[in-house]
Amino acid sequence: MEEALSQKAAVELWYGARKQSALSPLATRTTGSEGREVGTGMKIAIQGEPGSFSHEATLAMLPDAVIVPCSVSADVFNALANESADGAVIPIENSLAGSVLEHFDLLLQHDVKVVRESQLRIRHNLIGISSTLDDIDRVFSHPVALAQCRRFLAEHPKMESFAFYDTAGSVKQLVELRDRHAAAIASDAAAHYYGAQILQAGIEDNPENFTRFFLVQRTRDARFGLDADKTSLAFSVENRPGSLVAALNQLSAMGTNLTKIESRPVQGKPWEYVFYVDCQLHSSEEGSRAIQALKPHCAMVKELGRYREAETKGKEQGVGNRE
């Protein structure tokens, strides 16, 4: 009974400390290996703490970025709107977990454009301040990370898993609390950033684990490159037979390859939907032609962005961009 109460108190301490130290959207420079500030470029908002996968994806695209950590995704877009950030890097789709649906909605709601895409190899690690797995009885991480490490957790039934707001945030928390009986699941970058140890590397169930990230800017600041070969569009159609097919046929007639389609409900309008599509382009100008082709068949059309398609490289290379 005493052990159970102690365990409950330890877990409550984690969540209580989290409430006291909630993130605020303030710029944080990335610290180098010798403690020097190295971020001197664009201020980039991310959801989560420094050391997160979004942080890693940002530095792969913009090595001199100044990170603006935000508590929730809405704060990321608000940082763009109020100009406390120059851009944002958001995960849009994971190869195993699927789309980040909230981010589709936020892209549509805000006056922003996607200007770049990258892909990051997601490698999960068990991280702690203890030197042995035997000390660990609690594991904290983002729910998606926990779900992607089910096999490892099943093989270690002593370790009870708890959902936390962020992968890197869970590493930060265990280091701040000096909790030797807790571990976090996060990237190796998070372990190095907060001075924790990797107790076991590569604990994810499936190594074919990649996340697509978008670099987003305010519309007035966005510039589409001449080498853009992909576009993301949002559109809605009239609620009548064949309207969606007619819209998609316009893209097909142009020879545009549809690589993704996602539907999201329109808030306040039951059974009405916005469709999100990604299309490969033969040229950047084809993106404009695709919008014009859709307009006669759609109640609303918005281009979310036009950018160079990222390539998936080898498992250990992480980010691939065709540059």
3D structure, described in words:
The chain is α/β, with parallel strands linked by helices and 323 residues long. It has two domains: 1-218, 3-Layer(aba) Sandwich (D-Maltodextrin-Binding Protein, domain 2); 230-307, 2-Layer Sandwich (Alpha-Beta Plaits). The chain has helices spanning 2-20, 53-61, 73-81, 101-109, 143-147, 150-155, 167-177, 188-194, 243-253, 285-294; strands spanning 43-47, 66-70, 87-94, 98-99, 112-121, 125-128, 138-141, 160-163, 182-186, 197-200, 210-218, 230-236, 257-265, 273-280, 300-307. Strands 1, 2, 3, 4, 5 and 11 form a six-stranded mixed beta sheet that branches. The longest helix is centred in the N-terminal third of the chain and has 19 residues, at 2-20. The model is unreliable at 30-38 and 314-323 (pLDDT under 50).
Topology:
Elements: H1 2-20, E1 43-47, H2 53-61, E2 66-70, H3 73-81, E3 87-94, E4 98-99, H4 101-109, E5 112-121, E6 125-128, E7 138-141, H5 143-147, H6 150-155, E8 160-163, H7 167-177, E9 182-186, H8 188-194, E10 197-200, E11 210-218, E12 230-236, H9 243-253, E13 257-265, E14 273-280, H10 285-294, E15 300-307
Parallel strand pairs: 1-2, 1-3, 7-8, 7-9
Antiparallel strand pairs: 3-4, 3-11, 5-11, 6-9, 6-10, 12-14, 12-15, 13-14
